[in-house]
# Entry
Amino acid sequence: MFVTGARPNFMKVAPIMHELAERKSDLTTELVHTGQHYDFEMSGVFFDQLGIAAPHVHLQVGSGSHGVQTGRIMSAFDEYLAARPQPPRAVIVVGDVNSTMACALVAVKRGIPVAHVEAGLRSFDRAMPEEINRVVTDVVADLLLVSEPAGLENLTREGLPSERIRYVGNVMIDTLVKQLPDARSLAMAERHGMRRGDYAVVTLHRPSNVDVDDRLRKLVELLRRLADRLPVVFPAHPRTEKRLAELGLKDELTCNARVHFTAPIGYREFVGLMETARLVVTDSGGIQEETTHLGVPCVTLRANTERPATVTSGTNTLVGENLDDAWRAIEQILEGHYKKSRSIDGWDGRASSRVVDALLEWLQH
Ligand code: UD1
# Structure
């Protein structure tokens, strides 16, 4: 039984479910959608584009504070499991969203084995809701499927037994590799009236950036400065759009002819836009990995990352509190003095095959 809930889950679940279907094992699969994300642009479009079958069940939990949302997911998932004639052989959770932790907890409490895809990532920042989700999920999960080298070190240091841990690589890159030809055929730069290699893509949604008024004001100032240098495409998360409107900052962006402020866009559209961008400015986790694979410079508006390989081997630069640092990184990129990506073990488009090998072997024992 696979669990999804929020936007970054769909591209992780898709390649594993496809690979399992191809293996023709005696396992049947079932997909649960918690409904943490519910707008079409945040959820439905990913099912359409990634070829994921409709979920067997939609728990429709919706938004809420972290405690309320996590609690709702737990009770809805628990009731769903209780109503089944038989428990599933295993529950597979991915990533670090509230749905990941909530469903892992419910499953282990019912004695159902849990596998965690993207285990071991740590930002060491407990103010970040996802960090709590990662730590809790890894402690309770039975099989820890690790995506990047730091994950192995973190789990080992935390004392998690090596029998539970497998290095499989990054399943998000599988989806990226598979979808790239279709993404290219959309000619996204042209659609936005941009010249390839001559525009920036921006995304923002972390509470630490968008929920703090002063920080969000400063970030809008940074974007205005960036737009003076090259056009910007900014597909805004609903949370970000709401916050910008509350602070009276949305008009400033929508009225700027050099900023294309849009609703969230589909996976393929976003990959297509990213691939031919001069640079990406973001606070997302997954985009740090995708830009590294695509070799596109990425400035991450965070003081830390749970994905350090994107900094040490990839195209990612972290900038925290001081936005002068962000500007310096942007200038370096614009001047053409910027690092290139090196390959990262297991980010090769075949991670889902290793995930399925590990799952089948684990279930046999
Ligand atoms: C969640 C994940 C985050 C991930 C992000 C990707 C957690 C703790 N956070 O954050 O790790 O990077 O998804 O998007 O799980 N909203 C809508 N429509 C939707 C979904 C949300 O309008 O379909 C709005 C609501 O106002 C909601 C707010 O966005 O309150 C935040 O949504 P929520 O699911 O709480 O967290 P995200 O910020 O999306």
